[in-house]
Amino acid sequence: MPRAAALRLLPVAATCWAVAGAAVLAPGASPWIALALWAVAALCTLAVLRASGRPTSRVRVRAAAGRLPGRFRMPRDAVRRALVVAVLAAAAAAASASHVAWAQPARASIADLALDGGRAVEVRAEVVGKVERRADGTLAFDARASRFSTGNEGQAADVEVGVRVAMDDVDRLARLDVGAVVQIRGTARPARAGERAVVVLWASRGVDVVHAAEGGAAAAAELRRGLVRAVGGLPGEGAGLVPGLAVGDTSIVSPTLDTAMKEASLSHLTAVSGANCALVVGIAFALAAALGASRGLRVAAGLAVLVGFVVLVTPEPSVVRAAAMAAIAMLAVLLGRAGVGIALLATAVTVLLILDPWLAASLGFALSVAATASLLLCARSLAAGLARAVPRPLALALAVPLAAQLACGPLLILIEPTVPVYGVLANLLAGPAAPAATVIGLAACLSAPLPWLQSGLAALAWVPASWIAATATTAAQLPGDALPWLEGWPGAVALAVLGLAIGFVIVLRSGGTRGQRLVRAASVSLVSVVVGAALGTGALTSIAGRWTLPADWSVLACDVGQGDAVLLRSAGAVALVDTGPAPEPLAACLSRAGIERIDLLVLTHYDLDHIGGLAAVRGRVGTVLHGRGDADARAQIASLTAQGAEATEASAGLTGSLGTARWRVLWPKPGSRAFPEGNDASVVLDVRGGGIPPTLMLGDLSASPQRVLTASGALAPPYAVVKVAHHGSADQDAELYVAAQPTVALLTVGIDNDYDHPRQETLTILEGLRARTVRTDKDGAIALWASGEAVAIWRERGG
């Protein structure tokens, strides 16, 4: 099939994707969208029938200012082809919108029942997605609900829900797997717009496994568990990777290695991706060919094995679409024609979106399509371009991960605004080991009836898996492994433009046509400017960053946006008070300050702007001093203690040391329930000595507990530094600040935040006390240290 002909199906897939996305994001409008598109499809069909009866169609082109001279003749076949594409695009888009419209009444009914008044719900469901352990220690999985109950009301259902539950709240945890029927009790919250799940259930009252999976699902689950047991005695991080590489089971991958795999752009190896499926199908195809099977039998054998593999690794939606992408890639390779592959890809995308319109809002689906399309369209051209600079075998090896990185990078920016510097190199090094680990690990999984063989194969799979683990760990530890990038859609568009420029630099010859030379020169200039700026920024936030900070700092307020993250340092020991709203800015601050280990982590309370960056310090904390909290809070603390931290609940009177400094907890009062969990129960800390000027950290305390704290006599003024409560909100008690006698008032606040923090009322209080006010929204990072009887101040913006 000529590539031009194959590309005609792209508008069909693109239109279907756009309309499906609009329908799932605005389901109330989906019936009208469907009706309009069915009408368009009908009109286009009539136009096709009319065009088929005419020898030539003449199209007159009109400009806004009048009629352009001349006539353009369009052959009948071209008109008919364009109209057929329009019919297919409108019909496919209408079908996907119709699916949403048909499903919406039942989805809305269940959502109304589950979310009415915040009542407790009880749901009977079948687990349809892999049970995964999150970083906070909770379990998450997707389930197909068959009945919802709230109080005395009950309703049959056939909708998908997301489930979160603490491990300790699952009855018969070992039986919780795909295919199991469960009873879920807890509360519901709305799912994000566009998600397939109608609601997300927090199973605060537990999950009971009514009965375990049966039939093929039970057999597949036992095979997966058998592989996990087989690698249990093997040493190092590689053991946990074997089940992930073979069957996508990441239950025993350590959080540290999981983070390293993501930073090195290798996390796709432990997900069941199109590459895994294609590898399995390729082996089946090759074996069938070796046995002399015909082409038809070889394809049939490959597809049969693919179906079995999907059942083994759990037939959740992400696996099914990965299998579809793999089948497309396999057929394209077998036929040796990229045009066929593009046509098949467009067809598969269209069919999948009709059957499951909610894929339109799935980033995983977009990544699968982008990766497959990049391999079909770009890998060969990139290999040819790279072969001009490096040996051809190396060019071929580099082209595949580079194509995937360029295509998927802009989408990944939407998850985390960083660019992995060593991603292509890490994939190049780990690439040869991945197929071996996958194939041998899969063989070990299937050899469960022969334990001696399974153990031997598991040990063999451990070797390449350990190489991959070492590659990921090394890449993640290299300086500047991730460069910061613009967030959101602006960042995605910017990286897409940069990726296109990189592609032009590689593919276009320096001695091509004039137009090609101009495009290449512009691309080289763009890439040079962006890479230079990124490397400079990365250096300032990592290797060279510590050179820009004053060497004597003892208090460092990180610029993490609207949130708290304050470092304290004495005699080489480091404390961190809160972690800000996200891990990326905190990680950049720690790297800039040269901080590898947090001796004392203080979590004043559990609002997102104070604990959102926990992922940046997990595995690096000695002691965590925390306030009281609910089940979610306890899960966060458990995620830290699971990686070696010692946890202590803070209450007034508790004391300790940090290097040669001393810290003392002033709030909350032990055993007091006068103030609820949250802002008013924030941990308040007094830290002084050992080079740290007397410092008062007020968390997010409001005026009422501030008054009680002042009256308690626990304050020890004057304080050289006071971290102003709640980012300078208006809910302050002026008498506390009068009593504290601050020399410097530290405000941790985000630029142009939605809360109008700091409020003028608070600034007026501080001005009346003649305190020097420093704030992270205007000053950036702020360093403070004792300088004789005074406090020295360094501002990132202004010195």
Q: Would you write up a description of this structure?
A:
This protein is α/β, with parallel strands linked by helices and 799 residues long. The chain is built from 26 helices and 29 strands. An 8-stranded mixed β-sheet has the order 20-19-18-17-16-15-28-29, with helices on one face. β7 and β8 form a beta hairpin. The termini are far apart. The relative contact order is 0.06.
List key phrases describing it.
single chain, 799 residues, alpha/beta, eight-stranded mixed β-sheet, seven-stranded mixed β-sheet, 26 helices, 29 strands
Strand residues, percent: 15-25%
How confident is the prediction overall: mean pLDDT? 83
Number of helices: 26
- Name the structural class: alpha/beta
Got a strand count?
A: 29
From the N-terminal CA to the C-terminal CA, the straight-line distance is: 64 Å
Largest sheet: 8 strands, mixed
Order of strands across the main sheet:
20-19-18-17-16-15-28-29
Low-confidence stretches: 55-72
Brief overview:
The chain is of the alpha/beta class and 799 residues long.
Topology:
Elements: H1 3-7, H2 10-25, H3 30-52, E1 56-59, E2 62-63, E3 66-67, E4 72-75, H4 76-115, E5 121-127, E6 132-133, E7 138-150, E8 153-166, E9 170-171, E10 181-190, E11 199-202, E12 207-211, H5 215-230, H6 238-247, H7 255-263, H8 274-290, H9 295-313, H10 317-335, H11 338-355, H12 363-377, H13 379-386, H14 392-413, E13 418-420, H15 423-430, H16 433-446, H17 451-477, E14 482-484, H18 488-507, H19 514-540, E15 555-557, E16 566-570, E17 573-577, H20 583-593, E18 598-603, H21 608-611, E19 621-626, H22 631-641, E20 646-649, E21 655-658, E22 661-667, E23 684-689, E24 692-697, H23 703-712, E25 721-723, H24 734-740, E26 744-747, H25 760-768, E27 772-775, H26 776-779, E28 782-787, E29 790-795
Parallel strand pairs: 8-11, 9-12, 17-18, 18-19, 19-20, 24-25, 25-26, 26-27
Antiparallel strand pairs: 1-4, 2-3, 5-7, 5-10, 6-7, 7-8, 10-11, 10-12, 13-14, 15-16, 15-28, 16-17, 21-22, 22-23, 23-24, 28-29
Helix pairs in contact: 2-4, 2-11, 3-4, 4-11, 5-16, 6-16, 6-17, 7-17, 8-9, 8-10, 9-10, 10-11, 10-12, 11-12, 12-14, 13-14, 14-15, 14-18, 15-17, 16-17, 18-19, 23-24
